[in-house]
Each structure stands twice: as C-alpha cells, then as structure tokens.
Amino acid sequence: MITLIKEPNHVQEQPTMRLASWTGVMKRSLLREMLAVASRPGILSFAGGLPAPELFPAKDYAEAMAYVLENDARALQYGPPFIRLKEHIVELMARRGVACTKDQVFVTTGAQQALNIVARLLLNPGGQVIHEQLVYSGLQQAIAPYRPEILAVPTDLSLGMEVADVETHLANGSQPAFIYAISEAHNPLGVNLIHERRQWLIKLAIRYGVPIVEDDPYGFLHYDEEPIRPLRSMDDNWVFYVGSFSKLLAPALRLGWMVVPETLIPQLTVIKEALDLESSALIQRSVAAYLDTGRLSSHLQRLRSEYRLRRDVMFTALEQHFPDSARWTKPSAGMFIWVELPAHIDTVELLWTAVDKAGVAFVPGIAFCAGGSPVNGRPVSTAASSLRLNFTNSTPEQIEEGIGRLGELLDHYS
Ligand SMILES: Cc1ncc(COP(=O)(O)O)c(C=O)c1O
Q: Ligand 1 pocket: which residues have CB below 6 Å?
C-alpha cells in the first residue's frame, strides 16, 4: 500500500497577489529598458529625450529659490495653485499665440500628470481613443489602465497626422473619449501638423463633439520661422492644451500646466487631489520668482541657438555618413529626428550592435508603436526599421562622432 505523506503546513503554497486585471496586459517599458542600456558609461547616447544639462539656468533659478525660501513662508506649506504662476502661464500662452485667462489655467506636476488627469476625466474603461500609430509612450502608459480601444491613425512625415483617417473613424460611428495630438515637434517623429490639418481637426472635434488633447512640451523650442499657432488658439471649448516647464527650464522641476475649458476646473481639481493633492508650492513659487526676473526670454534664445546648431550638425552628419537609402525628418522645432532605414534593417538588433561595437545608442522605432487598427488600408508603419535620434543632449563634437560611427556600422548592412 502506498502511504501518501501529507505536506507539512509551512511548505503550503503561498497565495499569489491579485493585481488589477489591466496589469496583465501592461506593456514593458521598452523605452526605459533601452534608456538604461544607453546610459552605460562611455556610450554616446542619442536615446533619451533629455535637454542639455549645461544649459539649465541653475544660477538664476538658485537665486529665485533662495529668495522664495527666505521671504515666503507659504512656499513650504500646503496651498492652492499659485496665482502669480498662472499669470505667467497666461503670458507664455500669449507668446504661443493662445489667448486665455488665468481661470482657464490648471497647474500640474509635469505634462505627464496632465495626461493622466485628462484621461481620468474623459476616458471610461474600455473606451476609445484616437491617436497616431507612432506616439509618445507616456500617453500609452497614461491610458493603459482603462484598457482602451485604440483607433490608430498614421502620420505623414511632412504634413503630420492623417486627419482624413480621423474623419473616417468618426464618420464610421466611433465615439472616442478624445483625440491626442502633438501638433508641434512631434515626439518621436519631429514633424509639425500643418495649418490646414489643424483647422480640419478642430472642425471634426466640434462637429463630432470629441475633445482634442494637444500635448505641446516642445512648442517654445523652435529654430526656424515662428511656429504656427496651436490648436488651442482655434477653439476654447474642445481643446485641452498641455504645456510643460521641463524643456523650458528643467525636467526635475516636475511642473506643467493645462489650458482647459474653465467650467471643468472643479472636476480637474478633484482628480488632481487624488493623485498628489497639489503641485509643490515651493516649485510653483520659485518658478514664478524666476519668471518675475524676466530672464526667460534670453534663456530661451540661448536654448534655441544652441539646439539649432546641434540639429544642423546632426543633419550634416546624417547626410555625410548615412546610406542614400535612409531618409529622415527635418524638424523645425523640438528635440528629435526620425530616421527610416531600409526595410531589412531591424533597429532593435541594430541598437545592441551599435552599443556593443560602436558605443552609440538611439531608440528603435518600435518603442513608440501603439498598435490599433489603421483605417483606409494605409500601409503598416515602418517603425521596425526606424529610429529616433535626440540632438539636444550631445555636444556638436559628440554628434559628429556618434553619427559617423553609426554610419560606418550601417555600411555593413547595405
Ligand atoms: C510629448 C510629450 N508629452 C509629455 C511629456 C512629459 O513631460 P513632463 O516632463 O512635463 O512630464 C514628454 C516628455 O518627454 C513628451 O515628450
């Protein structure tokens, strides 16, 4: 007879923790993993979306911070959004060609929080969202908990989002919670949405009653002619404008804003309270004190001239070192150039080789692929053989060196 030996209690299997069901479909943060590789010592990295640290206005900001700490006891206290900061934001918006009032300004802890807040306001579980096939990965993360149905639209690398495809989705009866657009200096594509398409998009938003979330962290970093006005300048009611101090001053401030229909401020306030109660009073007040000094204009001029130089050095290096079969966007603003390589080159594989053999990093295109089903039978995007290059976080010498090394590597792939 076989005797079954009972397992002692202490080795009984532990129950597994039940996570929220959406985490089962949570995507790995490919971008973060790749950025970790790119930040190995000695690597020339064009991967991160980082500003140039040597251009941070650290000295001026330190003065503003010291002044606030010495003179304003409320800077270390809980408190409502700082009105003086909102007034500065109204002025900044006027520089972007947007007329708004301080009552339409909603302060956030970075643009990323703004995206989370707006998703919480507009999106139901399982609801639909229209965005481009290649899209800022932070947007994908902000909406993922709702397990949305993505209505993907392609992007023309010269003209921006294919608004005709947006119209097809809407005319087919889709009822998306919102349309997400980066109208200026698209991340990752570096393209601007042309004026006619902006007007068309606004018309669609109004006709179908679908809000647009306009994400504009790069609009102040323009290098050629004055940029065209944001979508928010064309309509007050259907556009949630999202701005950020990350690229104007420094990302570590974690300060951003929205310009929204005024009637929604109470709901937005409740949502934000659930997330972090409020954005840091110290940061709001010290940024306002920095802006009070009037030094932002000259700081922005310096950023623009240095980034323009770096962009142009990267254009020239790409011309010299990349194969004739490659093509790339020519951004007039922002931080990124998008490069399409011949279809047989897998840029994830290329990244590992580039890091190991050439000591150079970039972000492979698939890190920005959102899936979803395209309409109008348009071709599937060429993301697998594309890559994103950042030109703001490397010196001109590093850009020449790094693009040269990548070009040499690509010679072996032709
Ligand atoms: C398109 C886009 N939106 C939002 C953000 C997040 O910005 P913030 O640092 O203000 O949270 C980024 C950051 O790179 C971005 O590229």
A: 49, 110-112, 136, 138, 182, 187, 215, 217, 244, 246, 251, 256
